[in-house]
Automatic annotation (TrEMBL):
Hydrolase in keyword set: yes
Top-level division of the source organism's lineage: Eukaryota
One BP annotation, GO: proteolysis
InterPro entries assigned: Cyt/Met_Dipeptidase, Peptidase_M20, Peptidase_M20_dimer
Parts of the chain that traverse the membrane: none
Matching Pfam families: M20_dimer, Peptidase_M20
Molecular function, one GO term: metal ion binding
Protein's UniProt keywords contain Hydrolase: yes
Keywords assigned by UniProt, alphabetized: Hydrolase, Metal-binding, Protease
Ranges where the Peptidase M20 dimerisation domain occurs: 205-359
Protein's UniProt name: Peptidase M20 dimerisation domain-containing protein
Length: 464
């Protein structure tokens, strides 16, 4: 394709069609079903779907078909199909559901108040993943406006990704007549390492999360009366955690794997690009140090080694309301990140046995709210496809394509790999450093996204 014509297309359409449309999408307060008990009845996800459908209609892409698939419960999946030349069948994945709004947005911004500051578009769903349908359809439109033949393209837009994709397998099955058998599955939910190149995701960790409740009495008791007799449930829970996590190193030998040498080299290379900025996005308080000071080791801690975070607690009152009592129970929300290739379900069985066997003082342990998802590792790309990516990245960013591991979890990648066994699974995305997804101040960096749309258009055209 003609790079000059692509740049002309982006100049003419980026603000009016992409930015303005994404702003309107941000204004729709639709959440993921895990955070909205009325997800299927309040009409918000329907409003988001209809808005994207209207955007597609307004682009007037000849031959583009829209399909809304629902399961028996009514959970929706939106699919666009462009038949193309059928030389290759490309599945492009994104999602329309959003994380909760949260408090703490910087002044002048808000979760449903889209504002552009220094090139960053703030708002819930801007980077995760509201940009995907608008970017993909504009990339498609650009190629067709240049008379470029395209492969068969199927844009799949899920509505439950932020809830762990509980119905995605059944919805993919219901959509099989539209999706067929992809040659490439391009997941647009991933992150760029920096804004200087096109980036592929090489690995993603898996997730294992559940609630651990430790109970010792039927009701709380005055600490002056029973302290020294009734064991403290919070400390028992901590002692159980210490069985799997080394309290000083924070390593979890139970789930560790041998890291392939190629990824050790990747860690050295990517961390060298960051230099002194390796930890800048973590906002450490003055004097606080990371678990591993060496950037390459920290990279491996985040991308390959298992980790544990206590992300919530029940039974602990605020300090302003805490009396002198020994509480009856403590519930901790535990979130393990697992190395690529480690089974999340097998890991759960292991840790469940450890947490429920020989519990101190025979305290009662309950486990609930299980969430599992396996990690993923990109397979070796063929030379032709890698050459295409390098050429496109060089054209738009003056650098070859890069790859790096993601510390978070996108179980959908493994789901795609398991379902479409012949397909190459590719993780890319426009969100990059400082995107702050899931938290206040979620944002999308627009200058990079503009180039990304152009690059993606050229990649699709190159797959014919």
């Amino acid at each position: 394709m003609d790079i000059d014509k692509t740049n002309e297309f982006l100049e003419a359409n980026f603000e009016s069609k992409f930015v303005d449309s994404l702003k309107d999408f941000i204004r729709i307060p639709n959440l993921s079903p895990a955070f909205d008990s009325e997800f299927l009845t309040n009409g918000l996800i329907d409003e988001a779907i209809e808005y994207v459908q209207k955007f597609a209609e307004d682009l007037q892409i000849e031959g583009l078909q829209s399909h809304l698939v629902k399961n028996e419960q009514g959970n929706p999946m939106l699919i666009f199909v462009y038949e193309g030349t059928a030389a290759a069948n490309i599945l492009v994945y994104g999602h329309l559901d959003k994380q909760p709004h949260m408090e703490g947005w910087q002044e002048g911004t808000g979760p449903t108040n889209p504002v552009v500051i220094d090139g960053h578009l703030y708002g819930r769903g801007s980077a995760d993943d509201g940009y995907v349908p608008f970017a993909t359809l504009l990339a498609l439109k650009n190629a067709l406006d240049q008379g470029q033949p395209l492969p068969r393209i199927v844009l799949v837009l899920e509505t439950e990704e932020e809830s762990g994709s509980p119905h995605v397998v059944s919805l993919l099955e219901l959509s099989s007549e539209y999706i067929k058998d992809p040659d490439y599955c391009i997941c647009m939910a991933n992150t760029a390492f920096d804004f200087d190149s096109l980036w592929l995701t090489s690995t993603m960790r898996g997730i294992l999360a559940f609630n651990l409740k430790v109970s010792v009495t039927e009701i709380a008791c005055h600490s002056g009366v029973c302290g020294g007799a009734i064991p403290e449930s919070f400390r028992i829970a901590n002692s159980l955690i210490d069985r799997v996590e080394d309290s000083s190193t924070k390593r979890i030998p139970l789930f560790e794997v041998e890291i392939p040498e190629s990824y050790v080299e990747e860690a050295k290379h990517v961390s060298s690009l960051e230099g002194e900025d390796s930890f800048k996005d973590f906002n450490f308080l003055d004097g606080v140090t990371p678990i591993k000071v060496d950037p390459a080791e920290s990279y491996l801690n985040i991308r390959w080694r298992p980790s544990l975070a206590v992300t919530g607690a029940d039974g602990l009152p605020p300090t302003s309301k805490a009396g002198n009592v020994v509480r009856d129970s403590t519930t901790l929300k535990l979130c393990f990140r697992l190395p690529p290739g480690v089974s999340s379900t097998e890991s759960f069985e292991k840790v469940k046995e450890i947490f429920t066997k020989d519990v101190p003082y025979d305290a009662k342990v309950e486990i609930s709210g299980l969430q599992t998802g396996d990690g993923w590792r990109m397979k070796e790309l063929d030379a032709k496809f890698r050459d295409l990516l390098n050429d496109v990245s060089d054209t738009f960013f003056s650098k070859k394509v890069g790859s790096f591991g993601g510390g978070g979890s996108i179980p959908f990648l493994k789901t795609l790999e398991n379902r479409y066994t012949k397909a190459k699974i590719i993780g890319v995305g426009s969100k990059g450093p400082g995107h702050n997804i899931h938290a206040p101040n979620e944002n999308l960096y627009l200058p990079y996204t503009k180039k990304f749309i152009g690059a993606f258009s050229h990649i699709l055209a190159g797959l014919v």
